[in-house]
What we know:
The structure holds two protein chains of two kinds. Chain A has helices spanning 42-49, 92-103, 110-120, 136-148, 166-178, 192-196, 216-222, 273-281; strands at residues 4-14, 17-28, 30-35, 57-62, 65-66, 77-80, 154-158, 184-189, 201-206, 209-214, 227-231, 242-250, 253-260. By secondary structure, chain A is α/β, with parallel strands linked by helices. Chain A folds into two domains: 4-213, P-loop containing nucleotide triphosphate hydrolases (Rossmann fold, 3-Layer(aba) Sandwich); 221-281, no CATH class. Chain A has a six-stranded mixed beta sheet with strand order 6-7-8-3-9-10, sandwiched between helices. Chain A has a four-stranded antiparallel beta sheet with strand order 2-1-4-5, covered by helices on one side. Chain B is of the alpha+beta class. Chain B has 14 helices and 21 strands. Chain B has helices at 2-17, 19-43, 54-78, 80-83, 87-91, 96-130, 135-166, 169-182, 185-196, 202-207, 229-248, 258-275, 290-300, 497-510; strands at residues 313-323, 327-336, 342-346, 351-358, 365-369, 372-376, 385-392, 404-406, 415-416, 422-423, 428-429, 438-445, 450-452, 455-458, 461-466, 471-473, 476-481, 484-489, 518-521, 532-533, 537-540. In chain B, helix 3 (54-78) packs parallel to helix 7 (135-166).
Amino acid sequence: MNNILKLDNINKSFRKKKVLKNISCTFDGGIYGLLGPNGAGKTTLMRCIVSLYKHESGNLTYNDKKIEDIKGCGNMVGYLPQKFGLFKELTVNEILKYFCSIKGIPYEAENDEINRCLQLVNLEEHKNVKCKKLSGGMIRRLGIAQAILGAPQIIIFDEPTTGLDPEERLRFKLLLKNLSRDTIIIISTHIVEDVEAVCDKILIMNDGTIIEALTTGDIKKTASGKVYEVPYDEIKNINGNHFIEKQYEKNNGIYCRVLSSEPQTFPALEPIVEDGYLCRIKNI
Amino acid sequence: MKTLKIDIKHAFIRFFKNENLIYMYILSILAIVARFLKLMKRISGSDEFDVYVMPLVTCLEMVKYLFVFFLFLTFEYLYMLKSASLEETVGGISNGIRRYENGSLSVCIIGAFVYWVIIALLNTSGGIFLGNKDMAYIIQSSFTLFVFVFGNLLLASFLAWVTSKYFGRIRSYFILTGMVLFSSFYFEEISALLFEMGVNIYPFQEIFAIMPTGLKFMPNFHNPFVVQPNQIVLIVAWIFGLYTLAKMHRNFEQKRSRLYWTSGLICIMAICIFCAPSSNILMNENPTGTLMESQMYYRNDTGSHEVDFDKFEAVSYKMEMTINNQLKNSVEIEVTPCNLECYAFTLYHGFKVKQVSDQNGKKLRFSQMEDALYIYNDDSADISLLNIYYKGGSSTYYSNALAIYLPGDFPYYPQPGIHDVYDRERYGYKSNFLEKDAYFEVNISGPGNIYSNLDNTQKGSYKGYCRGPVFLKGFLKKYDYRDVSVTYPYLNKEFSDETIKKWIDNLKDGLGVSCPNKIFFAPNLNQRMMIHKGEDYIIAPYMFDPEQYTDERME
């Protein structure tokens, strides 16, 4: 049976501030990228899915059963929060054993499961190393390992690549590819490149709502004909509503990558996911 | 249960792997043992009168240091999840935080229990080493230590738990330090200082009176440093209150369990019991309690209730007493004559009358004004028996589950006629006996041996004629010699069968005086030097000079 996680009109407020507004979407097996600027409500939405926060109204169902009615629902979700630390005095093995115990993994299966996860994150050689001796990237990988312990049906990563070097980021992307295709993986990030290569679908959030849920290809298409390469000196000649995405050096000149809703005389560029994302966020 | 075991195992791993915590804990135990051994070396072979209770005094002194130490130690331990930035990760797992807290708190509880076991063992072995093998004392001193060591350390860890949930490290340290100061003896002294300046903060101070009191006083061998019922209730209220407060804070909106509501209810009940009147030995410097309480009360008392009423006589008393944190008495008094309009009694104002009825169960109107009780015979009926139900206590003449000190000349039972209870000039209670002997039949429910001038027919039952029944309970022992029954506090090294023998020989042979055949040597800490002399008994706090017996000062 396929895994289906369904969010139906989810609302959440903190005092008078409404953080999630009628969020509705359906996740089935695959990798989802949750993109949005800071304060868009990504972390709150993830915390609602993990049951850290109780949503005020709406339904959150997994395979047509309300999440809160499923006994041990927390254990079918693997979660790596933005802020992840460790008991520094414990070894990698000890801390993972602790997570195994609270996740309800049988004692006799603990060692195999730990070895499997450590292998996936390339930390098997550090199994007996104290956590205080691990680098920032290793701690993050260990965080990923604890999230995938017990092969949960839903895995949620909040800013998973923060603190990882390029090689480790690549490894993380490979790891995602190696996880079961039936698993629902949701990655929240504002680094578009991280989701571009691995995500089947991208959800763009802004101001507490999901404003778009498209495949990477479709997102790119939304920016089609809206991306231009403009020499820095000619920025002032751009017509209408536009957004300067970045500036860079090319052929001894300085150029800008500009998004514009109106046709320009400058050379058009092939859009990437980031262009599509920014077009939606900036209403271009 | 299985999951709890696993959680405790992991909590122990976290504790033992943290070198700072484990070394501090072991060092604190070594420090306790070293301090105790030093004391034993100093007092072994000593003839000092308080030598038997010195191990207990030392153990109780350790409580305040342990409390401070444990407060911060458990805070650091329970704060680990936050300081390790693991709160959200663990919270994201079903019951993750609850299981983390269960495991960690279990370790704290086990840690507090280990302290108690070590200290109770030190106290017991120290007592046995010094020659005190009394089982009742061992049990009660171990219980006292259980309340103060285990109870207070449990309270400390729960307070640490609450602060670790609600606040960051700096704010928590402020709160924990505040708790240390408020529960310390210094705060008691500040309260005394402010009281002299006209500011009474004692009601506030009493909320924090969780530490053993009276350590600065001379040991009361009748009842040395036992924990008072009110203090047990206070510690229970704190523990359950803190538990409720901890559960009130919902980490990531966890559901509130049934335990939350139950603990809240227990806390409220404990607070109600704490606020209700009780009879304790108050060994602190609170001027509103014990010695000063009477002075302050009678300073304001008008004393204007001395009105001439028809005289009557109480022929017999049948009393059913229950003594817990206060005294409850259902007394049946046979009175003569039977047709008075009003029966006026003297009953200490601390005892509040709830109901009065006649021999037929018919309720009678009554009023209580200070130490006077008036019962009205509105129908001018023949009244042969008066049933009076009252409860309460006196702080000077205490009566609680652990200790009783009720002399016969104190109106803790209704005495016919109206008379002054307190001597305003001499700042002490007057001796008020019945005018004639009355027959008493008393049943007292509660554990432990009670000593009386009445005949003890069976456990808890006392009968006989007297002008005022005496009831004493505590660490006392009875010794009969030459028709004199002497009850004495065996924890005072000055008292023994031999010294009592010599004392009686000296009294009877040396001085040739006849004395009452019941002598009680029992110190009352709340009114230390008072001697009570009745026709058939004497209660004295010390072994007085037999020559003094005929002295006026004994009157």
